[in-house]
Design brief:
The complex is a heterodimer of chains A (203) and B (307). By secondary structure, chain A is mostly helical. Chain A is built from ten helices and no strands. In chain A, α2 (12-20) crosses α3 (24-46), α3 packs across α5 and α7 runs antiparallel to α10 (175-202). In chain B, α1 (3-14) crosses α2 (20-31) and α3 packs across α5. Classes of the chains: A mainly alpha (203), B alpha+beta (307).
């Protein structure tokens, strides 16, 4: 198929423009590129496969119905999709909590356990390509380079949607300490990743 | 608040750790026009977007994709002419095998991260270059510069496209508001009508929580249906309203769909000469509607007798 070939060779930015021009095949292509990597993100936040899949469908419909929400000046398409998936999934967790408050999964101990469990989990999709597998190993390795406290603070913010003040009261630590850990941890992550990319850039 | 304070907040915002008010203040600062903070934000978001890459990839069920494609084709507002796609193929893919992140292999990894980490990369290039022959060093810098130049140009072009798209969106919004204003005026005049009759509708067996109300303006021969608590009609389905006469004749009144909150409104003219209407009913039918009801009754109510 000529069209499929052309789309597959297009950059993310071109695909997002094509989506704004109402080319539905471009949405299909963006979905094929990223759905399998957004799925575990939604699942990690929501804990339920069916809900994660619903969020995924909503995210891509939103990409289609509100194409001008994506502003290429504000970052890559992938970063946009991650932001959108994360906030839709967290919104859903919050409305679920409002609906049946005082139930399940809201205590810090549970969060820590599930964090540990998901970090230990290493099952890999057979469809995962060598490149994506390599990237996953790099990012996981970079994350292991952080202190457990830094990692915990970052993950409580990113996967559970807690603000620094919420994290500080949940962990019973001073606010400044929490902010410092997040900043230091992310800066460390950036350094490690820069080193990886510099290396693969010269290869 | 000073720019420095905001810059300090960017990483925390990107990972979602700011309180709502702090995030809003940062975004307002960027929207007011601070390219430095905007750049820092793009870079931080790209960095944070690495976090989910540590999770093992997982394919969603195939129906997620098929449902999505059906949904968007159905809601497509302005279909483009069905000519060849206008997407230029700028990246020669050596082997278009798709990775989980889907970029063509080879250049993908670098290009994918390029906008965000360009600064970091450039720094790394300089650093590495210090221990390499000067010639390679300068060629490398030149390449990096060219890449950035191209990036800036693409940015400018894409911003022009964004502005056009925003204009178009606003135009459509105005149209929608005008239409809503027209509807509101219709409703207001309906409520003032002297010969106003009300028909209460109750949910059928399949969705007992649904309810509805028809305001019948007898002067002007118009039914205005308001319904709530309805499930979405589903793929390829729609709701259809019926005038059912005393002689048990079923006359199609119109089709409608529900919004995200399960609400719907419908505005229909009552045909003249159909005799006494005894019942109003809503059934679930194939998209586009049918001349005679085939689906189950979702809402129904008796029409009060007119003296």
């Amino acid at each position: 198929m000529a069209e499929g070939r052309v789309l597959r060779e297009s950059s993310d930015r071109e695909l997002m423009q094509a989506i704004a021009q109402r080319q539905s095949a471009a949405l299909g292509e963006i979905y094929d590129r990223y759905a399998a990597q957004l799925m575990p993100l939604a699942l990690r936040i929501l804990g339920q496969r069916a809900e994660a899949e619903e969020v995924l469908g909503d995210v891509f419909s939103e990409v289609w119905t509100l194409p001008d929400r994506y502003d290429p000046a504000r970052g890559t398409a992938w970063a946009y999709l991650v932001t959108l998936t994360r906030s839709r999934a967290i919104d859903r967790v919050r409305s679920r909590q409002r609906e049946r408050r005082m139930q399940t999964a809201d205590d810090p101990q549970h969060a820590l356990e599930s964090l540990a469990a998901s970090e230990a989990g290493g099952e890999t999709s057979p469809l995962e390509s060598a490149l994506a597998g390599e990237r996953r190993r790099q990012v996981s390795q970079a994350l292991r380079g952080l202190t457990p406290e830094q990692r915990l603070a970052i993950e409580l913010a990113f996967y559970r949607g807690l603000s620094h003040s919420e994290i500080s009261s949940e962990l019973n630590e001073p606010l400044g300490t929490v902010k410092g850990r997040i900043r230091l941890g992310l800066s460390q992550l950036r350094l490690t990743l820069d080193r990886f990319y510099a290396r693969s850039g010269t290869a | 608040m000073s720019c420095e304070v905001h810059r300090d907040q960017v990483l925390l915002h990107a990972v979602g750790a700011l309180d709502r008010s702090e995030s809003e203040s940062l975004l307002a600062h960027i929207d007011a026009g601070c390219p430095a903070c905007a750049g820092a934000l793009a870079e931080s978001l790209a960095l944070v977007a690495h976090l989910p890459l540590a999770l093992p990839a997982m394919e969603p069920s195939p129906f997620v994709r098929s449902r999505l494609m059906q949904r968007i084709v159905a809601t497509r507002p302005t279909a483009p002419s069905s000519t060849a796609p206008s997407i230029p193929a700028v990246v020669p893919a050596p082997s278009p095998s798709r990775s989980v992140l889907g970029e063509p292999t080879g250049s993908g990894l670098r290009r994918w991260i390029a906008p965000a980490l360009a600064a970091g990369l450039a720094a790394a290039v300089v650093h590495v270059g210090a221990v390499r022959p000067a010639l390679r060093d300068s060629r490398r810098l030149e390449l990096a510069l060219n890449e950035q130049r191209g990036e800036v140009q693409r940015l400018l072009e894409s911003q022009a496209v964004t502005f056009e798209a925003q204009l178009e969106t606003q135009r459509r919004q105005i149209e929608r508001l005008e239409m809503e204003a027209g509807r509101a005026a219709q409703t207001a005049s309906l409520l003032q009508a002297s010969q106003l009759l009300m028909v209460e509708l109750r949910g059928g067996a399949t969705q007992p929580e649904a309810q509805g109300r028809i305001l019948w303006n007898r002067d002007r021969g118009i039914w205005h249906l308001y319904a709530s608590g309805l499930q979405p009609a589903g793929e390829g389905r729609t709701y259809e309203l019926w005038f059912i006469t005393a002689a048990d004749e079923k006359i199609p009144a119109g089709t409608f769909d529900v919004d995200a909150e399960g609400r719907a409104t419908l505005y229909v003219e009552v045909p003249k000469g159909i005799g006494t209407i005894a019942v109003a009913a809503v059934t679930d039918e194939p998209a586009g509607g049918v001349p005679q009801p085939t689906g189950s009754v979702q809402l129904a109510g008796a029409v009060p007798e007119v003296g």
